[in-house]
Write a structure and sequence with these properties.
- By secondary structure, the protein is α+β, with helices and mostly antiparallel strands.
- The protein has two domains: about 5-80, 2-Layer Sandwich (Phosphorylase Kinase, domain 1), CATH 3.30.200; about 85-220, D-amino Acid Aminotransferase, Chain A, domain 1 (2-Layer Sandwich), CATH 3.30.470.
- It is about 30% helix and about 35% strand.
- It contains six helices and 14 strands.
- The chain has helices spanning about 45-65, 100-105, 135-140, 145-165, 210-215, 220-235; strands at about 5-10, 15-20, 25-30, 30-35, 40, 70-75, 80, 85, 90-95, 110-120, 130, 170-185, 185-190, 200.
- The strands form three sheets. Strands 8, 9, 10, 11, 12, 13 and 14 form a seven-stranded antiparallel β-sheet that branches. It has a five-stranded antiparallel β-sheet with strand order 1-2-3-7-6.
- Helix 1 (about 45-65) packs parallel to helix 6.
- The radius of gyration is 17 Å and the shape is globular.
- The structure holds uridine-5'-diphosphate.
Length: about 240
């Protein structure tokens, strides 16, 4: 597998072309941003942790019949993935209140939601990823009704699988963000699933083991990512 030109560089990852048109390399950086990239920093070895955590989770999801862009791990910071067209919608799934929903609705963090809450955000940095609904999605022609049904259905299934997976590792899955892509006319899960894109609270202590340690200056950010990787690989 040959690594060719850089196609795209985002805040936390770089996508490289390969010698196969349908496959690209997703490379994970240590760069961290928060609050619309107004806060910037580096988290040592974050890229390594997120690459390995994401790979493991994609494998678990594939085993549960969730189609993903994941093909295989290449090295410490890279994975081979299918080249997809990203649907510009960020899906947020919430099981416990925190962050955006607490701010939006004026409610405390840490309230267990009886039913998971699904949100759509328009993936648009200059508009600050605004919350929107399916009518906006259709108005902007971002996805067809069939595609959005698939996205919604997969998001709830992924939530069920991940609550169980992390629960067995003594982590509460508070919330997370998903991105989907089109691959050969099918919707597949893309991007990453990591402490950058999920909130994890240790059961019992409620210790935050995710990017909130960076956002809120809670210290030992690197340790939190390492701890999540350790638990993900622990095969409990
Ligand atoms: N999230 C993300 N990328 C974003 C916004 C949110 O990965 O651009 C994740 C975030 O890490 C959290 C979940 O989505 O696990 C819900 O985030 P929220 O809407 O509460 O926003 P935040 O408080 O992170 O600004």
């Amino acid at each position: 597998m040959q690594k060719l030109n850089k196609i795209y560089e985002g805040k936390a990852k770089i996508i490289y072309q390969t010698d196969q048109p349908d496959l690209v390399i997703q490379y994970f950086k240590d760069d961290a941003t928060a609050f619309d990239a107004t806060k910037r920093g580096t988290i040592n070895s974050k890229g390594i942790c997120n690459n390995k955590i994401s790979a493991e989770i994609f494998k678990v999801l594939e085993k549960n019949n969730i189609p993903t862009h994941f093909v295989k791990l290449l090295d410490e910071r890279s994975m081979l993935v299918k080249r997809v067209e990203i649907v510009p919608i960020e899906v947020t799934m919430r099981n416990i209140t925190a962050g955006g929903i607490s701010k939006l609705l004026g409610i405390d963090e840490g309230i267990i939601l009886d039913n998971p809450v699904l949100e759509y955000h328009y993936k648009n940095d200059s508009l600050h990823d605004p919350l929107f609904n399916e009518y906006h999605i259709y108005a902007l022609k971002l996805a067809t009704a069939r595609e959005l049904e698939a996205i919604k259905d997969l998001s709830f299934k992924i939530n069920t699988v991940l609550i169980d997976f992390f629960g067995k590792r003594d982590l509460d899955l508070v919330d997370f963000k998903l991105e989907f892509g089109r691959y050969k006319n099918k919707i597949v899960l893309a991007d990453e699933i990591s402490p950058d894109t999920c909130r994890f609270w240790e059961k019992g202590t409620k210790k935050k083991l995710d990017k909130d340690r960076f956002r809120r200056d809670l210290g030992d950010v690197e340790g939190a990512y390492q701890e999540v990787l350790k638990r993900v690989l622990s095969g409990k």
